[in-house]
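BRCT domain-containing protein: structure, please.
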Amino acid sequence: MSGSIIKSQSPWYCPSCGIEVAAVQQYCTVCLRSRPLPPSGYPQIFSGLHLHFNGIIPRTLKHPSHSAEWRMAERHGAVCDVVFDVSHTNVLVYRPGYERSDKVRLCLTRYTHIPCVPISWLLDSLLQSRQIHPVLYRLQAVPTVALPTVRGPLLPHHQHPYYVLNAEEYALGPLPGKDANKLRMAATSSNVQDLNGALGIDLGVIPDAIWTTCSPIEAAAVASFMSPSMTGDDIDDDDREDKKTRQKEEASSSTSAGIELFLTLSRQNKINRTLLEGMVFVLSESLVAQDNVRTVIEACGGAVVSSDHLETEATTVLYHNEDKKEALMIDACRAASSTRKGLLSFATYTWLEDCLMLGELIPMVEQYTPSAKLKATLAKKFDKKQAVNAE
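Here you go.
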């Protein structure tokens, strides 16, 4: 040990039964609950959520908390429930192929306040280090015909980039699948043949491009230039009918609009050019500095004005979380509660990102709007500002 001093670790207490467990034990010897991973240094993107996994955790494990999926969610702020309790569970995370299971049916027919989302929602959120709104992945209805599932221990989400690169760190027991070690080694390999062989597919691209992602705004900005609309100055009479036909096709296929974050899938990106039609935005300071934000808003039919129009034509204040207490937010909060009451709304930067990914407008509620505490803080700042000006 080269003379190094090893400090003894203190025992931990089981969160389920409260029993004191020795530091060397990875799970409680009474209820078999695993030792929670320390959340320090990890974004708590699932804070406040109670998750229940349906068809994801193998039954061969001693306890559901031993699975990598459980520990990933728990380390990032979620509370995972062993028993499906509709009075506590916020989100039901299911395995693809379990869309007709009893728990999913119960949520879709009776307890509609519990969204049912596939495991890809969890892994995509972890990959982006932010909670993607469940409505983007939510199952809308029970399929008429059972969808195909996967047999064997290796599920499709075990090939997700975040799972491949982090499963070894989170899993308490052995990883599923006989080729798990091969897959894990291939994830960090520079040889594309190793990666293709481990995944069982021919990707035909270098590994860096496979795992590389971009922000939804950047992807939407690129998509806005891929099929620019023709103007009256660019076409003659023979092309006008083609333009009208194309516009009708674009309008009818607007529901297929969406943004893929992997660079290898960027060619599939498509924006809905009427998504923000009729909306007039005022941007916070950090968003004004990003040219792509204005470009995307205008490409989707919206308009961007300066803060001078806050009292007149602005309909939405789009802000970044780091700008939530700036002067613009103070003035906008006052205007929204007095002169522009009911006419001026607030939306976070992530609201625009999720709308672009879905291709549809998402209601400005819950995590997309300022909290009641923030509004109270902004009101106090405005009163203080008025008192200073009066003096």
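Notes: The first helix runs from residue 68 to 75.
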